[in-house]
Amino acid sequence: MPKITFVQPDGTESALDVDAGTTVMMAALAASVEGILAECGGNAMCATCHVVVVDPTRPGLPPVSDDEDEMLDCTASPRKEGSRLSCQLPVTEELDGLVVRLPEEQM
Amino acid sequence: MAQVIDDFAQTIQLDQLWSDPYPIYRRLRATQPVAWVPAANRYLVTRHADIAYLEKHPDIFSAAESPSLMTRVMGHTMLRKDGAEHLRERKAAEPAVRPRIVKQRWTPVFQRIADELIDGFLERGEADLFTDYAAPLAARSLAAVLGLAEVAGADLEEWSQAMMDGNGNYGDDPAVWQRADAAARGVENAVDAAIERLTAHPDDSVISAMLHAEDPLSHQSIRDNLKMFIGGGLNEPRDATLVGTYALLTHPEQRAAVDADPGRFKDVFEETVRWVAPIGMYPRQTTVETELGGVILPAGARLGIVLASANRDESVFTDPDAFDINRTNRVHLAFGGGPHYCLGTWIGRAQVGAVSMPTLLRRLPNLRLDETVPVRWGGWVFRGLLNLPVRWDA
Ligand code: FES
């Protein structure tokens, strides 16, 4: 089972063992990780599932699509290198060990 | 033994909800957060947490309410569908309303319409911003985005109102059906003309997007969905413009803050739709027996999801009845959530937050309420101001 770690702005970490086949956003919601609102339910329309991938060059990350890119320009906390919509990140074995930071604000 | 049952929900009347629903919602949140309300013929769900939960479980809380007055008026629109069927129609429309196209293509159109309307009354020194500005701006903007630019704003306003009245025709009034049916036919004819034009010459509009999608929608499906967009896409930007402007005119310190930094209109918009959610309630129906907020609901239970109440939930927002653009917590639910998350979110943010309110305050010097005419509020399913009499230095 891939392990995914969420780091809150205050440094608190939650490490989840997640089944492959879901998305990073769904995994966060299922475990009630704070700071993921995911208002549009994973449709790349709301930008409230914003996370910042700590190592954006790691393997297993799909490229940013046009829809995701445009939505990342609409995040409440400014876009950074490594910014992604967690609903657009499918969990795969390759993604094991992913660490993402939560932004200060989602709305 | 005598038992005292506090069943406040039984006593609620629709006209009370229409004139001021907020004290009623406050009491429901405190005592009966999921309550059977006979007058509304549904359970009203009023707490933020319960609504946030149900929006994440569309398989249990279905949008495909049956029987539905809306389906009777408009046919089978995406708003009353679930799952893959809904997603297919929604995805077809989305390219026309995503943030980038809104900014590049539609915001300049909204700006032109706003300026034309203001040019028309600037010298007068007084106006009712409902009829002179907010309603025609919302109608003409909607026409442009949908691909119905040749339709007069006034026709769109009439169609929208007539179909909305049909959606709420719980009393089965034949005159209301007649007017709603005439409006639906008016929309169909206008859409058919647009389809003919846009089939040969695609543009950035919603109808064009639906026609030329990877998985194109049938003409009937486009007609039906257009009825929904017209019925449900006009009053929200209109009402947000009026409520936000009213709030600024009655909160001088906050107005000074946006005068000093127009970037703050973003905050004004979000706080406006939190404070008075334009869509106050929408329906859902349970697909199985389920528990919500401590209440067991049978399968097929009809629910009213009260966004207006969630947005005033004291367990989420401090001093929830106050209008305050400086809130740090802004997790309002005005756009709903889940697969039906408001398709017009980015249009609304641009039309109201970037154009309609800022343009008014910039162009009308010393804009103020006309104290001689009282403002009137109304509605609970949809709520807003019914007039906004103002004066300025002409
Ligand atoms: S959940 Fe809305 S963009 Fe990811």
Question: Could you characterize what this model shows?
Answer:
The complex is a heterodimer of chains A (107) and B (394). Chain A has two helices and five strands, in the order E-E-H-E-H-E-E. With 107 residues, chain A is of the alpha+beta class. In chain A, strand 1 (3-7) and strand 2 form a beta hairpin. The radius of gyration of chain A is 12 Å and the shape is globular. The mean pLDDT of chain A is 95. Chain B is α+β, with helices and mostly antiparallel strands and 394 residues long. Chain B has a single domain (8-391), classed as Cytochrome P450 (Cytochrome p450). In chain B, the strands form four sheets. Chain B has a five-stranded mixed β-sheet with strand order 1-2-8-5-3. A three-stranded antiparallel β-sheet of chain B has the order 4-12-9. In chain B, strands 6-7 form a two-stranded antiparallel ribbon. In chain B, strand 10 (377-378) and strand 11 (384-385) form a beta hairpin. In chain B, helix 9 packs across helix 10 and helix 10 (174-200) crosses helix 12. Chain B is globular, with a radius of gyration of 21 Å. The N and C termini of chain B lie far apart (72 Å). Chain A binds chain B through residues 29, 37-41, 43, 45-46, 67, 70-71, 73-74, 106-107, and chain B through 55-56, 58, 90, 94, 98-100, 270, 330-332, 335, 337-339, 341, 343, 345-346. Bound molecules: FE2/S2 (inorganic) cluster. Chain B: It comes from Cryptosporangium phraense. Chain B: Keywords: Heme, Iron, Metal-binding, Monooxygenase, Oxidoreductase. Chain B: Belongs to the cytochrome P450 family. Chain B: InterPro entries: Cyt_P450, Cyt_P450_B, Cyt_P450_CS, Cyt_P450_sf. Chain B: This is Cytochrome P450.
